[in-house]
Amino acid sequence: MIFFKRDEQDPGVAGIWKTNLDTKRQTQVLAGNDIFLQLRWGPQGWLALSKNHQVWKVKSTGDSLTQLTYGVPHYQPQWSPDGQRLVCWQDGPTAAAQGLVFLDRKGGARTAPAEPLKGYAEGWSSDGTKLLLQHTADGVFGLGVYTFASNKVDLIVPVDIKAGHGGIHGAAWLPNGNGFVWSSDLGLFRTDLASRRTVTLHTGCSGRIYIHPSISSDGRTLIVERVDRHAEDNGRAIYGETNLWTMDLDGNNQRKVEF
Q: How many CB atoms lie within 10 A of CB 115?
C-alpha cells in the first residue's frame, strides 16, 4: 500500500510511504510536504505525483525521481493502464490553456482532447478507453465518463452540492469497468454504469467522512481514508482522526488498518 504523510513539525516524516499490510512494516519512498496527495502506480513500479506544482515520476523504491512537466503548474497525474500515457491538469493563465492534457511516459507528446475537459480526472478504465472525471456540463456538476472513441463526456451521476454532498472526495473504477465507487460528505457510494443506479455503502455525517477511495490491484478490496471527528467535553472543540480502512466492494467487513 502506498500512502502520504503530512507533518509540518517534522519534514523528515512527511512524504510518500509504503507499507506491507501483512507485516505492517513501513518504508519511506520520498520525503517532503510539497507532494500532492493523489498517487497512482505506473509501469515497472513507477509512481506519478505532483511536486512543486509540476508532474514527476519516481520509482516505488524512491529512486529515479524525474520531472515530466515545466512552465505553468500541472497537477493530479494519472497513468494509463498500459503505462504509456499520463493525463494531468494544466493550470494555464487563460481559460483556453486550462484543462486536462495527455503526456507520454517521458513527459512529451502534449495533446489535449478536441472537446476541452475541464474536470478533475479520477482514473482510467482498465482497458484505457474511458476516463472517469468530475465534470460540469450545462451548469450541472457530477461524475462523468469521457470516452476516447467518441470524444464525449457522459454525465453519469449529477451531484447537488447544495443538498449536502459537499463536493466529491474521490472515485475509483470497479475492476470490471461496469461502474465506480465514489464519496462525498454524505457517504460512500457505488454506481452501476449501465443502469446509473447508485447504492449507499456507508453513510457519512458531521462526525465521519470517507475520502480518496481506491481499489486493490486484485480487485477484491476497497481502500478508503475515513475521517472521524470528535467533540470534546465542552462541546466546542472538535478534532479529527484520519485512518485507512479496508472493506469488501459491497461495503461489508470494514476493517481499520492498524500500523
A: 12
